[in-house]
Design brief:
Elements (H helix, E strand, L loop, with lengths): L1 E6 L15 H17 L4 E4 L12 H9 L6 E4 L2 E2 L5 H14 L6 E4 L6 H4 L7 H17 L3 E3 L7 E4 L13 E5 L3 H10 L2 E4 L6 H17 L10 E3 L3 E3 L3 H14 L9 H7 L3 E3 L1 H9 L1 H5 L4 E5 L7 H26 L11 H10 L36 H16 L2
Parallel strand pairs: 1-2, 1-13, 2-3, 4-5, 5-8, 8-9, 9-10, 10-13, 11-12
Antiparallel strand pairs: 6-7
């Protein structure tokens, strides 16, 4: 099982000092955080994509390539690659380039984005979010799977005799996760292709996470990719730790109360009760995280959000040190001991698999429904948040039917 951290790249005022870091300071900090994540033994570092304040990560491949040149074994990923507003041709090229530069030490997570104004900035209509995600991803797969492409769709100009360069490393495309908070259509899309499904559950109670993951597992099996338990699942999470829970709550509360993502909404106590956010001792983080398996079964990737809400770099690094010393070894050991025989590992490029096998560091064996929490709907946020500009299907069945119709339409062309 893989453990890692992800960043939404927010630039937020530290409420305890009043200081707001510059873009340059946050960019430098994210590189430091990623390198430190490798130092403490984490498996994955993921970075989001955003094109609006208060976020800085408009070009995750650039940042990840820079981090890749300064690290040796941590897997580099995205916590969102915008499949809707980006040209899939450019995604194919940029991520194949990153894959070649890192010798296969990367994957990526697709997402629609959840900031309404971004769509028209890139010439798109947010009301077409799901059809865009379906068509664009089909083109991306086509570009990676075929050396010469003739293609025509609804949302971009046709391609004739086009070859995306560079080619995927050893002609093996990067593994793709499909990230979603609330959309069953995205779970259906992930299942259709046999890709991974990452439920970024940081704003939702356990019953919602269970429903989304179960839907994905059922549809994964329906499309003939294996048993439901063979489906590749990832989850989000958040923590803030101190030696005792009272100290952790006292220190984190001002950051929670003013965070652009969930500040000025539910109380810290309400949020920690209804979502995976854990503010407390290392043992509380261990217990809460191990409990995720009771909700979704054995899964492959656990990523935590740790550098948000204005937390200063020194605090983030201290949090990582505490996690690496007291939490990570226990999680690796306990999840490995609990995993059922035959549980698959997250797919990685063969070159990376050989590297971690030789290194013997990663993938070690030592290794009544409540209401959903309402977030600040006025926050300038992206797809990691709860607020949504999309029209949602009324039921899971309707969402699956809608996605199936779009997939059939794409494949019939």
């Amino acid at each position: 099982m893989q453990f890692g951290i992800f960043s939404v790249s927010d630039i937020t005022r530290d409420p305890t000092t009043g200081y707001t870091p510059t873009e340059k300071e946050r960019i430098d900090a994210i590189v430091t955080i990623a390198k430190h994540a490798e130092d403490i033994g984490l498996d994955v570092f993921a970075l989001g994509e955003h094109h609006n304040p208060p976020f800085f990560s408009s070009s995750p491949t650039t940042t990840l390539a820079y981090i890749g040149a300064q690290t040796k074994r941590i897997l580099l990923s995205t916590s969102t690659t915008l499949i809707t507003t980006n040209d899939p041709v450019k995604i194919a090229e940029d991520y194949a380039m990153l894959q070649n530069l890192t010798d296969g030490r990367m994957d990526l997570m697709m997402g629609r984005g959840n900031t309404g104004p971004v769509y028209p900035w890139f010439g798109k209509d947010i009301r077409q979010g799901i059809p865009l995600a379906v068509e664009n991803y089909d083109l991306l797969r086509t570009l990676w799977d075929n050396h010469e492409v003739d293609w025509e769709g609804k949302f971009r100009t046709p391609l004739r005799g086009f070859t995306s360069t560079p080619r995927p490393l050893d002609d093996i495309p990067p593994f793709v996760w499909h990230g979603s908070i609330r959309s069953p259509e995205i779970a259906e899309q992930a299942a259709y292709y046999g890709d991974g499904f990452f439920h970024n559950n940081i704003f939702w109670p356990a019953y919602h996470t269970k429903r989304m993951v179960e839907l994905y597992r059922q549809r994964f099996a329906h499309y003939g990719h294996g048993r439901p338990e063979d489906a590749i699942v990832g989850l989000g999470g958040q923590f803030y730790m101190a030696k005792d829970s009272q100290q952790a709550v006292r220190k984190f509360r001002p950051y929670f109360d003013e965070a652009p993502v969930y500040g000025h909404g539910p109380s810290l106590e309400e949020f920690t009760q209804e979502t995976p956010l854990t503010v407390g001792s290392p043992q509380q983080v261990i217990d809460r995280t191990l409990g995720f398996r009771d909700v979704v079964g054995d899964y492959q990737r656990q990523l935590f959000l740790v550098d948000h809400a204005g937390l200063p770099l020194k605090t983030v690094l201290n949090q990582l040190d505490l996690f690496g010393a007291e939490v990570l070894p226990v999680l690796k050991r306990e999840f490995a001991a609990m995993a059922k025989p035959g549980t698959p590992e997250a797919p990685v490029h063969p070159r990376y698999a050989r590297m971690i096998a030789d290194d013997d560091v990663l993938f070690s064996a030592d290794n009544g429904e409540p209401e959903a929490v309402v977030v600040n709907k006025n926050a300038a946020v992206d797809d990691v948040t709860g607020a949504s500009f999309y029209d949602q299907a009324p039921t899971d069945e309707a969402a699956v039917a809608h996605a199936d119709e779009l997939l059939k339409e794409i494949r019939s062309k």
